[in-house]
Amino acid sequence: FAVPEPVYDSATVNTSIASTGGLAVTIGEAIVLKTAANMTEGTANVTFVVTLPEGLMAAISSTVEYGSGQNCSVAAGAITPLGNSSTLIYSLGECVNVGDNDTANNVESIRVYTTLVALDVGGNVDQTQLNVTTSFTFTHDSATATLRDSEVYTVVAPVLVVSIRNTSTLNVDAGDRVQYEIVVQHAGSTSSAFDLNVTAVVPAELQIDGAQTVLFELVELGLGENMTRTFEAVVQNRIRPGQSGLAADVFVTYDSNPGVTAGSYGGRVNRTQSRSSDLVVRD
Predict the structure, then answer these.
(1) How far apart are the first and last CA of the chain?
(2) pLDDT tens digits, residue range 146-166?
């Protein structure tokens, strides 16, 4: 008995971050992998397998869909795979494709969607290759055929640097207003940065609207974009003539993924910082 082979394919069909094109993926980004088969008419036992790079990716959720005239032992909807965290086995049991002599109804008559995430682990760095292999096994009576495919994802990541400078004067006295400029920019990034928190801190001898800190936030810094913010600090009466070492610091945190994908799967939080030149109090 020659087992008729269906057409089988796997493809990435959706992502939670629109700016990562093709098969690029950031830490924490959700990607939807579709494994689909064009079934031939008749009855067969069907199993899909998705194999992830161990310890580097995880499955968040899975669903199965059927086309017109296609029925399997496992109902359409959410499905929990067998196997383990890196080998996902979707055993659909006996599947019947109703004979209607209409090949159009056979196109992707079984579709399994697996939502995957790249984990925040040491092995996932910029340009790491994540090879996801898939297979589809079709058994009729005692004869079996297995078809295979794969998707290779590339990890991309944001890398930011920050600077802070005095744009007015370095020589100050009590009551002077000192202008600062902060610039955050990409430095070798291969993806956007998200959830930026930029905190400037001035010494006790200066105040920013009655405080020593000011916070700036930005949802996304796209590739090629800069973030520029300015603030003013007032020199206080507590300064001493000839005093030095009065510098402002800036601290930045940013994420590879906006928010949390699902459960505890978030992006990778990174940090960078810088310090301004010292102010010198006039004698």
Answers:
(1) 99
(2) 999 999 999 999 999 999 999
pTM flag (> 0.85) = yes
Contact assessment for residue 37 and residue 6, using Cβ atoms and an 8 Å cutoff: yes
**C-alpha 120: how far from chain center:** 10
Q: In what order do the strands lie in the sheet with 57-66?
A: 7-15, 30-38, 110-118, 57-66, 77-78
In angstroms, the Cα distances linking 168 to 172, 200, 214 are 10, 17, 18
User: Is 49:137 a contact under the CB 8 Å cutoff?
Assistant: yes
pLDDT one-digit tens code per residue, 58-116: 999 999 999 888 899 999 999 999 999 999 999 999 998 877 666 666 677 899 999 99
Handedness of CA 83, 89, 90, 94 (dihedral sign): negative
Work out the mean pLDDT of the chain and round it to a whole number. 91
pLDDT in tens, 220-271: 999 999 999 999 999 999 998 888 889 999 999 999 999 777 777 889 999 9
Question: Residue 180 — φ and ψ, nearest 5°?
Answer: -120, 145
The residue among 47, 38, 43, 42 whose CA lies nearest residue 146 is 47
- CA pseudo-torsion sign 29, 191, 57, 270: negative
Strands (E), 73-212: 77-78, 82-83, 87-97, 110-118, 129-140, 143-155, 160-166, 171-172, 177-186, 193-201, 206-207
